[in-house]
């Protein structure tokens, strides 16, 4: 009887393992058969389980192992250093890109690749129209003059926020708190200069957080799933921006507007080159949504990580603080405080930011093939996603000595940055707000270095999600 039971359980175990092994190859077999014609030539790879693909391994590499490089390493080790690998991620057949050369080809090719975000106002626009929209919306955040226009208000937002952090008795989560001033700066640039209901902006802030959390998850639009909540949040944000747009148009009709000072005003003021009509309401709202989606969380993440790195490396913190103190000492006695031109003097702080961007480029950048494309010897079907992991370039020991080490001084010996270093992307769709981001980060770190320290409540807490889990107190230094 005991022997029969052992035999039964053994057979059951073997059966389950066999079934699991078969299921693990179903996804890859399906797409191999679907694209088996001579028209396509897919790179090697592993497409994981049905429906979920490689998401378990992807999430483990971030949350369990604390090493996003382990996900890419799995493909490189198993299939060799070919630079491109097929996978199934975020509910879509995908190509993982692991070389900067291929990555740049994708970023530079506006004809064949798109961001693929359904919330983008330009996702269905022609290339020419997309370029026109980007020109209209970004001209006022790229130049020296336009950035200086926003400087005083950014300065005020940062100072007030750090004061509030330090005044709190309880410990705070760094990243969520820093999202608030980053969002305030973004709203200043998008719609600022007028009195806008704080309650309305609070709704946009909360709903955008839901949208960001759910948008990059599995695209399961069923109640209870994050993606479904994200789609609902997108609808709420759209309604909020429509209300703001209607209010602004009413002010224009009543001649209560000020000179053009934000992106919304610029879009309303923009006219077609043919002297025809301006941008439609739907296009304007879509663009506001697009820039809100992409425009502030990254600043808060980099600020959070930079503060953590500085606190972890006292020597680097001392050197960065010394530079800021020298800037203050050179300041005329008549000066009221930090001014825009002093940002250019922050040479070492700029290297600290470059190093933070290098070692913390964890999130993949997405593109979608708009048509069947030939790339690096492979033919990839239309609609497949491309995921580029900048982290794998930035941790290349052939480019950087001791790549895992946080060392801003490594940039001293580089007359030009490596060709593989492009934290804000490259090509026609590179991040248009990179200058604003660096300006905001410089202001945050200037005041932090001079007047504050961060005391982490639990330094040994999760190494895999430090941005979410890092908790502690901002302490104001005595004068």
From TrEMBL:
Its cofactor is heme. It is a single-pass membrane protein. GO terms for biological process: brassinosteroid biosynthetic process; brassinosteroid homeostasis; sterol metabolic process. Gene3D superfamilies: Cytochrome P450. Heme binds at residue 431. Keywords: Heme, Iron, Membrane, Metal-binding, Monooxygenase, Oxidoreductase, Transmembrane, Transmembrane helix. Belongs to the cytochrome P450 family. This is Beta-amyrin 11-oxidase.
């Amino acid at each position: 009887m005991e022997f029969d039971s052992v035999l039964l359980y053994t057979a059951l175990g073997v059966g389950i393992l066999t079934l699991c092994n078969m299921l693990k190859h179903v996804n890859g077999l399906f797409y191999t058969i679907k694209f088996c014609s001579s028209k396509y030539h897919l790179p090697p790879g592993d497409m994981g389980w049905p429906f979920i693909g490689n998401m378990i391994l992807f999430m483990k590499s971030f949350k369990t192992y604390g090493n996003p490089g382990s996900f890419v390493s799995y493909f490189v080790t198993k299939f060799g250093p070919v630079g491109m690998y097929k996978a199934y991620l975020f509910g879509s057949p995908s190509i993982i890109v692991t070389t900067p050369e291929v990555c740049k080809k994708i970023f530079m090719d506006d004809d064949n690749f798109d961001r693929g975000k359904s919330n983008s106002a330009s996702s269905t626009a022609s290339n020419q129209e997309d370029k026109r929209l980007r020109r209209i919306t970004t001209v006022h955040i790229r130049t020296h003059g336009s950035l200086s226009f926003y400087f005083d208000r950014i300065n005020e937002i940062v100072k007030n926020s750090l004061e509030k952090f330090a005044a709190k008795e309880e410990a705070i989560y760094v990243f969520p708190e820093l999202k608030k001033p980053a969002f305030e700066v973004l709203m200043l640039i998008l719609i600022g200069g007028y009195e806008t209901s704080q309650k309305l902006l609070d709704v946009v802030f909360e709903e955008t957080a839901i949208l960001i959390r759910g948008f990059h998850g599995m695209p399961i639009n069923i109640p209870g799933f994050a993606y479904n909540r994200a789609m609902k949040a997108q609808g709420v944000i759209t309604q909020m921006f429509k209300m703001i747009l209607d209010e602004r148009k009413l002010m224009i009709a009543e001649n209560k507007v000020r000179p053009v000072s934000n992106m919304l005003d610029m879009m309303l003021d923009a006219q077609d080159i043919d002297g025809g009509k301006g941008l439609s309401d739907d296009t304007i709202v879509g663009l506001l949504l697009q820039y809100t989606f992409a425009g502030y969380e990254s600043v808060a993440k980099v600020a959070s990580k930079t503060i953590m790195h500085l606190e972890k490396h006292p020597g680097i913190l001392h050197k960065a603080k010394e530079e800021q103190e020298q800037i203050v000492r050179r300041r005329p006695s008549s000066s009221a405080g930090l001014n825009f031109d002093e940002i250019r003097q922050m040479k070492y702080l700029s290297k600290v930011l470059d190093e933070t961007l290098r070692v913390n480029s964890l999130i993949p950048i997405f593109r979608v093939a708009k048509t069947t494309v030939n790339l690096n010897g492979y033919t990839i079907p239309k609609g497949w996603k491309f995921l580029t992991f900048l982290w794998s370039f930035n941790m290349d020991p052939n480019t950087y000595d001791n790549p895992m080490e946080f060392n801003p001084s490594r940039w001293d010996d580089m007359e030009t940055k490596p060709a593989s270093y492009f934290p804000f992307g490259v090509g026609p769709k590179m991040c248009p707000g990179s200058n604003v981001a660096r300006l905001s980060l410089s202001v945050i770190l200037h005041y932090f270095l001079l007047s504050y320290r961060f005391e982490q409540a639990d330094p040994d807490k999760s190494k895999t999600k430090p941005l979410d889990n890092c908790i502690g107190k901002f302490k104001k230094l005595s004068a």
